[in-house]
Amino acid sequence: MLFSSIIFIILFLPIILIGHTFLPKKLKNLFLLLFSLIFYAWGEGIFVLLMITSIIINYGIGLAIEKLRDKNLDQLTLIIGVIINISFIVYFKYADFIYSSYFDFLGNNTPSNDLNIHLPIGISFFTFQSISYLIDVYRKDTIAQTNPIKIGLYISLFPQLIAGPIVRYTDISKELSKRKLDLNLFTSGINRFIIGLAKKVIIANTLASICDKIFALNLTDFSTPIAWLGIICYTLQIYFDFSGYSDMAIGLGRMLGFKFLENFNFPYIAKSIQDFWRRWHISLSSWFKDYLYIPLGGNRKNNTRTYFNLIVVFFVTGLWHGAGWNFIFWGLFHGFFLILERLFLGKILNKIWSPFSHIYTLLVVMIAWVFFRIEDFDIALEYVFKLFGQGGPFMSIYHYSHFINNYNLMILIIAILSSLKLLKVFHEYINRLFFKIRLKNLLTFFKVLTLMILLCCCLSELATGTHNPFIYFRF
Questions:
Q1: pLDDT attached to residue 363
Q2: Under a CB-based contact definition with an 8 Å cutoff, are residues 256 and 35 in contact?
Q3: Which of 129, 232, 360, 379 is the most buried (most CB within 10 A)?
Q4: What are the residues whose beta carbons fall under 8 Å from the beta carbon of 133, sequence distance 6 or more?
Q5: How far apart, in whole angstroms, are the C-alpha atoms of residue 150 and residue 9?
Q6: Measured between alpha carbons, how far is 292 from 297 in angstroms, rounded to an integer?
Q7: The dihedral of CA 411, 414, 420, 421: what is its sign?
Q8: CB neighbours of 114 closer than 8 A, spacing ≥ 6?
């Protein structure tokens, strides 16, 4: 079930909010757990048993780590727990990839009886949350949860279940035990949900309709400018698609009394790849930093070891995003530029005019997105060459009108301005202006009106059955 679906907005969400608001405190967690499992089962059916199995296993291992600490068996127990969790991802997400890669390595075609293993939605997210919980218990950063309902709710909580952000147990442990329904928090949650819905339905879906058409064409059929239009639209689509979903998750969490941390901070205004990863998918970046990069040694040892650690982290980052060599290349591509920035490029970027460092970052990110979007490495490479004019930069059998109209152009401009933080700066200026002239109530009225218009526009788009993909479902 998608957040950006009619059935969720008009049926599932109202039931959740009404039930959670009026049920006694003792029943709120059980209610949310049951409906989180229903939410998952709605789209995944029998695979909800995998979720329940994960809950039971991680609940037991968390308790075992604490009980076996005095016997010096806590580390072994943690290792077993991590292996079990990783095995879920390896089997469901990577078995087909490993299988086909094995035969490719041998120079044979993959047998016709492919494994065809179903990939359960959100497995990468809830498995990483489970691993972080076990490690935090082992490190004594938190106490193992003795209540199975609470640990079950932590792993399966529906707002962040299928697309993150990756929530640490330590960040919401108090809210699992005791949370208050605050009107201001609830109101801000509604506001955040509607904004996220608009980012997904109005902006991301519109841009998807453009770039999907372009990427479906033969590379010889369109020009360099149209190739740039395609990758620009995809660059913006994946940002508004994923950040919009994160906004909806954060908003839903607030409506239920949970305060999830931010997952995006205008990554396209970054002035280096290092800065980009501080702003993009923050929960994943911090997870890899705390549970992989630092345990490997981080940057505490010599430079060679630091570069090795970065390569490992970004190899795993690419692999986490998808079972394909294109994703691995995408991760290593980012890792390569991070190493360059540590070697010498970072000093240059700090000295040059900031727009140049910004252009450099966007160029690297957009070229990397080509390999993220196109699974066939050779075709992706040809697309990059097309961006730089190979094969005739202006030769095309297609005109811009085949891909973009006045409405799409308006959405594209709004997306660019918003991704570069310009709309937020304008919004903050208007806020200060209205406060200065003491028209706070009028400003509140306009904000509410704008949100209601956005919600109506989103519902209208969804009711007409428009193109509604979601990129991160496969991760």
A1: 97
A2: no
A3: 129
A4: 58, 62, 142, 151, 154, 155, 168, 169
A5: 26
A6: 9
A7: negative
A8: 96, 99, 100
Under 8 Å between Cβ of 199 and 318: no
CB of 246 closer than 8 Å to CB of 161:
no
pLDDT digits (tens, 9 = 90+) for 194-209: 999 999 999 999 999 9
Pick the catalytic residue: 20, 118, 281, 321?
Answer: 321
SS3 320: helix
**Does an H or E element contain 236, and which?**
helix 224-255
Packed helices 422-436 and 406-419: angle between N→C axes, nearest 10 degrees: 80
Can you tell me the distance from the alpha carbon of 57 to that of 49, in angstroms, rounded to the nearest whole number?
A: 12
**Residue 261 · residue 171 · CB < 8 Å:** yes
Lookup: tokens for 191: 């506001």
pTM of the predicted structure, to 2 decimals: 0.92
444's CB contacts (< 8 A; 6+ apart) are none
Task: Kindly report, residue by residue over 141-178, the tens digit of the pLDDT.
Answer: 999 999 999 999 999 999 988 887 999 999 999 999 88
Opening angle at CA 474, ends 337 and 57, nearest 5: 105
